[in-house]
Design brief:
Shape: globular
Number of strands: 0
Number of helices: 6
Strand content: under 5%
Order of helices and strands: HHHHHH
Protein name: C14orf119-like
Helix content: 55-70%
Largest sheet: none
Pfam family, one: DUF4508
Radius of gyration: 14 Å
Organism: Asbolus verrucosus (Desert ironclad beetle)
Distance between the termini: 26 Å
Length: 121
């Protein structure tokens, strides 16, 4: 099993590689984990991954799955370290995440999915 430090390094590298759309898809998933409660988008994404599928999961979906598994094993300091690094990489993402955590609502009207999960390749 990878060390927590290695897990965080992988996730930070992947975050660097993700498009803006993938980052916006990751935002409610990350907010769900940091808020410790279920958000609608997080639930929709979880259900979407449970359904029987004819095609394999995308690389993005695999990485999100690993994030979910790894995050639950991290201590508070490690979670704060990950959040700090993400915030340093993308300040706009960090602002949206903070708004989501404070208000429970995303203020990004440019990415309206009409309640449907958006899964990226």
């Amino acid at each position: 099993m990878l060390s927590t430090e290695a897990q965080i390094r992988y996730l930070i590298q992947w975050f660097h590689e993700w498009s803006d759309l993938q980052r916006s898809d990751f935002l409610p998933i990350m907010a769900e984990k940091y808020a410790n409660k279920a958000y609608v988008n997080g639930i929709v994404n979880s259900i979407a991954n449970v359904n029987c599928r004819e095609k394999p999961m995308s690389l993005f979906e695999c990485r999100v799955k690993l994030f979910r598994e790894w995050f639950s094993q991290w201590n508070t300091e490690q979670k704060e370290n990950f959040l700090k690094q993400i915030s340093e990489i993308d300040s706009i993402f960090a602002e949206k995440l903070n708004a989501e955590l404070q208000n429970g609502v995303l203020n990004d009207s440019s990415h309206d999915t009409n309640g449907e999960a958006v899964l990226e390749d």
